[in-house]
């Protein structure tokens, strides 16, 4: 099946689903805006990165050779008060900004592993690409689309809008006048020729601690510039896919596009994908009004928002039950239902894989065969329809009813052909393990205590990733510590399982 020929992607640039055609057949360049590493990664971030992980996984499944670049923002992302988020985090904790970046980058990576997200092909840091950013500022100045003012350099938005009609506003889908109005309320407007102009290089103030030399001043790059410079460096000036959360459309992505045009004269990415927001009990998750839950609280159940802990794979399944472009509301009821759905799917896959083809006896294609093949096709059509995991999961549930009937002897072995069973085994496993990235954490010990189960799954996943990285000391340390408290870990073909000794 040549799935890539049928892949349709919703492109924020056109506001439509489009046939996906990569620039170079067989290859995909994908850039996703990464985290700003100044505090613990929150669940909303996890949802967005999990959405793009599934997109990456599906592109790989389709047979593309994918270069997936996801950056680490460790400078330049300012708070509303104009202070660098990294420097602010460092001051509060009395640390070097790089200590802050290191601490939260490690935490971010750990959490990505817990959610079983694949590592990107390249993970560039903004602070590691200051010369590239300075070069880009110079390019934009050379093309007359920026101006220097007291050591800072500003992008000239009205001039850009005039030179490249229809580009500014294209990704957020808003008209220039509205965007101009929005930017009027932003702070630090005094040096700009127009309120919509934005800094691509900022002269440091005495209190700024993350600073570099440039032809214009000692200072630091504007936040939007890092993504323009790093995507160009690793994927070229025109590449296939650019992703990020919805909230980055404006100003971040609008300004990124403007900078790339300004420096290279062409549109950076052909397809712009935006993941929707994660809500908690119907409201935007926000630390300031207490409407928030951390991933760890969700796993342990230590939060008033949940009645118990949920394993990382249940949370991942919960996220995949919604399409990435829909908002997703975290509720305890939703998670309880997802836990049941996840277990059902894992049980179904185990059952399916355990049926030998020799137990199946149809010799010509049957109605059940056709129904099973339809379910498989529906699952892949769902994925081809803008990576709709919700549809793909529903199709697998439909398929499970035939296999369950076979196991319960409501369907005779003569109603399914061996090759259809084999096709189902491969497709279901491919979708669950490789595309959805769901690990089976249902084979652990006592189920009565879900908090312990969630924690044990988390620990075993951390150990599995240590083993995958050949980090034997960490893996042994985890096993020995568990032995000491009376928990035995067994390594098997399907991964590790545990029991109380
Ligand atoms: P940040 O670290 O704030 O730059 O965000 C990293 C990524 O997480 C960006 O793509 C954001 O759009 C995304 N993001 C932030 N908040 C949420 C949320 N509540 N739900 C989903 N994604 C989010
Ligand atoms: Zn970005």
Structure in words:
A hairpin with a 2-residue loop joins strand 5 and strand 6. The protein is globular. The mean pLDDT is 91. It starts with 7 loop residues before the first strand and ends with a strand. It is of the alpha/beta class and 501 residues long. The strands form five sheets. The chain has a five-stranded antiparallel beta sheet with strand order 5-6-7-9-8. A four-stranded parallel beta sheet has the order 4-3-10-11, sandwiched between helices. A three-stranded mixed beta sheet has the order 13-12-14. 43% of the residues are buried. The chain has 16 helices and 16 strands. Bound molecules: adenosine monophosphate (AMP) and zinc ion (ZN). Residues 33, 227, 244, 252 line the site of zinc ion.
The biggest sheet, with number of strands, parallel, antiparallel or mixed sense and barrel status, is: 5 strands, antiparallel
Secondary-structure-derived class? alpha/beta
Total of DSSP H or I helical runs spanning 4+ residues: 16
Strand elements, count = 16
User: Which parts are unreliable, with pLDDT below 50 for 5 consecutive residues or more?
Assistant: none
What is the radius of gyration?
25 Å
* Strand arrangement across the biggest beta sheet: 5-6-7-9-8
Percent strand equals 5-15%
The ligands bound in this entry are: adenosine monophosphate, zinc ion
Q: State the helical fraction.
A: 40-55%
